[in-house]
Design a protein that fits this description.
It is built from nine helices and 16 strands. It has about 280 residues and is of the alpha/beta class. The protein has a seven-stranded antiparallel sheet. It has a seven-stranded mixed sheet with strand order 11-10-9-8-12-13-16, sandwiched between helices. A two-stranded antiparallel ribbon has the order 14-15. Helix 3 links the parallel strand 8 (about 100-105) and strand 9.
Length: about 280
C-alpha cells in the first residue's frame, strides 16, 4: 500500500498527490512513469512521475480527472492509500547539455515537463517554459517553473498572461532564433502542431506520447505507435520520441478506441454517486 501524504488541487480538474513509494523514489529518472491501480479490480493507468524525494521516500503524481479511474484517484484524500504503484517504467529523457531549450506544456502536460525542466536547468541549459491553459484557473506550476528559467504563460481567453495558444508563443521564439531543442508535452493536437512548426527550423523536438497502456512492459501491445515507419511501444521504447518521426494521425485514431466505454464508465460512476439507498 502507498499512503497519500499530501494533496493539492492545482486546477479545476488537476490534482497533485504525494505518495509513499520509497523504492521508486530512489531510482526514478526524468521522463519515466508508473502504472497505478487504486485498489483490487481497478483499472491500471499510466502516470508520469512529476517529482521524487529519495530522502522522504515519496513520489509526486499530477493527475487530470478525465475518466472514471482518474476521477476516483483524484477524489482520494491524505491518509488514504493507493493499492499498487509499479515502476519506474519507460526510458529517461534524452537531455541536451548546453544551449537554449524551449519546453512547451499544454494542460496537465506541464506537470510532465517539470522534471525535464529541472534536469535541464541542473546541467546549465537555458530553459524557456511555454505553458498554457484555457484560462488563469487552468494554468499550473507556473511558480515552480519560474524558479528554473524563463516562463511564458498563455491563456486561450486572455484572462492571464499572453492571449493565445502556446504554439503562437513558440513560433515567436523560433523566429527570434537561438533555440537548440524543443520538448513538448500535452494533447496530441498540440504536440502535432509543435512538431510541424519546428520542422522547417530544423530544431530537434521531443514529445511524450500518451498512448493507451495496459501492462507497461511491452507485452500487451496496446501502446504501439509508428515511429519513422516502424512499430514501437511507448511503454518500453518511449514514452518520448523524436516528434518529426511520429505518425500523429494514427496515434489520434488509436486514442479514440475506448471512448464509448470510457463514457459508459463515467455515466455509471455518476449514477452510483447520486443514487439513494432506501431501507
Amino acid at each position: 500500500m502507498h499512503p497519500i501524504v499530501e494533496r493539492e488541487q492545482l486546477s479545476p480538474n488537476v490534482t497533485r498527490l504525494v505518495v509513499e513509494a520509497p523504492r521508486i523514489a530512489k531510482v526514478r529518472r526524468p521522463g519515466q512513469f508508473v502504472i497505478v491501480r487504486k485498489g483490487p479490480g481497478s483499472e491500471r493507468i499510466p502516470l508520469t512521475i512529476a517529482d521524487n524525494d529519495p530522502d522522504t521516500g515519496t513520489i509526486t503524481l499530477v493527475i487530470q480527472a478525465i475518466g472514471r479511474s482518474t476521477t476516483e484517484l483524484t477524489s482520494m484524500q491524505v491518509g488514504e492509500s493507493i493499492s499498487d504503484i509499479a515502476g519506474p517504467l519507460g526510458s529517461e529523457t534524452h537531455l541536451v547539455r548546453s544551449g537554449h531549450a524551449v519546453c512547451v506544456g499544454g494542460g496537465v502536460g506541464t506537470a510532465v515537463l517539470l522534471p525535464i525542466v529541472r534536469a535541464l536547468s541542473a546541467v546549465g541549459v537555458h530553459v524557456t517554459s511555454v505553458i498554457g491553459g484555457r484560462s488563469k484557473d487552468w494554468v499550473i506550476l507556473e511558480r515552480e517553473l519560474s524558479e528554473l528559467g524563463d516562463v511564458v504563460t498563455c491563456t486561450d481567453d486572455g484572462s492571464y498572461g499572453r492571449h493565445g495558444f502556446v504554439t503562437e508563443a513558440l513560433k515567436d521564439l523560433l523566429e527570434a532564433g537561438g533555440v537548440d531543442a524543443v520538448y513538448a508535452i500535452g494533447p496530441v493536437p498540440m504536440m502535432r502542431a509543435v512538431s510541424e512548426m519546428t520542422l522547417p527550423y530544423n530544431v530537434p523536438t521531443t514529445v511524450s506520447l500518451n498512448a493507451i497502456m495496459v501492462d507497461g512492459t511491452g507485452m500487451c501491445g496496446g501502446c504501439r505507435v509508428t515511429i519513422d515507419g516502424e512499430t514501437k511501444y511507448a511503454c518500453v521504447d518511449g514514452p518520448e520520441f523524436d516528434a518529426h518521426k511520429v505518425n500523429f494521425r494514427e496515434l489520434s485514431d488509436r486514442l479514440t478506441t475506448y471512448r464509448t466505454f470510457e463514457q459508459q464508465a463515467m455515466d455509471k460512476l455518476g449514477a452510483c454517486a447520486t443514487t439513494e439507498v432506501k431501507a
